[in-house]
Amino acid sequence: MKKKIFSIMLVVAMVGTMLAGCGSKEDKKESKGNKNSITVLVESGSPAEALAKETAASFEEETGCKVVIDAVAYTGMYDKLSTEIKAKQAAHDVACMDVVWLAAFADAIEPINDADTSDFLPTLQDSGTIDGNLLGYPMWVNAKVLIYRKDLISEDKVPKTWEEYQALAKELKTDDMSGTTVFGSGSDAVCSFLDFACQAGAEGLVFDKEGNVNITDQAYVDALNFMVENANADYTPADSLATAATESQELFTNGKVAMQLNWSHQYPAAVEALGADKVGCAPMIGGSAGVGATTGPWYECVMKNSENKEMAKKYVEFMYDHNADYMDLTLKIAGRTSVYEEAGKVAGNEHTTAVLETLGAEQSQARPMVTTWSQIEEVLIGVVESSLGEADVNDTLEAAKTQIELIM
């Protein structure tokens, strides 16, 4: 998942933050140690910032507690949390976290094991739990689905398997349009690789149940070969190594690609760009083990060193109760099954139904909960790039396994 997708919207909200001084030093000084105030860390320009601002007044009216919003760019959030945790300073009472950070900060997060998880979307309880402790309420989740030109692809021809997908991509190729794309760049490439590994039968992503590195298993070989076959075929653009979610979406909305396996939030954007009569979506495709995908959830977490922990807990519960409000924002993604079920009844939200079916598939899995994920991801980026660059798939995976074992 390319993290920058959560930072491309809501410029007005960002400007409002600067004008109102949300997250300013003065606000944070006022909130520290003040039982009538909590400070919440969010990604600037993200749905988390927008909804936090929209609901702050309601929370204060309900509880008497002021919400101070500290909006920080994605690239600075991890460092900011890490610094305050090491210093044992409670600069934030609540933090909105990418799932890949949970393992690194687990000891600094207050567990919420009494939470009702019955309405969590599939995979979200598991991906938010470390050593038996649930570390936060899900805010939203993203997974890849099939987005296609329904004016070119009839409903009965929408592909469900790797073989159907490749055959249709070949059929749809013209001089002016590619059949589909391959993500060969950055973290999106890793997520695609893991998606296909799920579909090929991987049991545990990168690590098996015993904690052993398993990326030389046949499922990973099959996944990489599938990516290489598609990248080398004439039905995909020649620059797969420079293609990720944003580039693929641009090709699709410019009429240069007939279908893509992209993050679900790209569907509403495509509908807006091309019109509902031209864009359809369906669950992720399946390999030999069936449909599967890896997920990209975010969680709202209470910090263990908070000086106003009880109010922080009330806040994350309050925001979970308002989870449906995320559907009113541009990305149209959330974290509750009931929210997706209701949203799917409304035209333009078909991606929510596709996500529900994809996440409900047996092979859909979360990325591993390890503190060294950022280093491992860099190794996996190299795996995809090398393989698409014609390196031997088996040799590349063997070398990567050794690297990951050294990291661990």
TrEMBL record:
Report the domain of life of the source organism: Bacteria
Query: SUPFAM superfamilies per the record?
Result: Periplasmic binding protein-like II
Residue ranges annotated as transmembrane are: none
Gene3D superfamilies from the UniProt entry = Periplasmic binding protein-like II
Alphabetized PROSITE patterns for the sequence: PROKAR_LIPOPROTEIN (PS51257)
Q: Which Pfam families match?
A: SBP_bac_1
Mind telling me which InterPro entries this protein's record contains?
Bact_solute-bd_prot1 (IPR050490), SBP (IPR006059)
| Family note | Belongs to the bacterial solute-binding protein 1 family.
* Protein's name in the database: Carbohydrate ABC transporter substrate-binding protein, CUT1 family
What species was this sequence derived from? Faecalicatena contorta
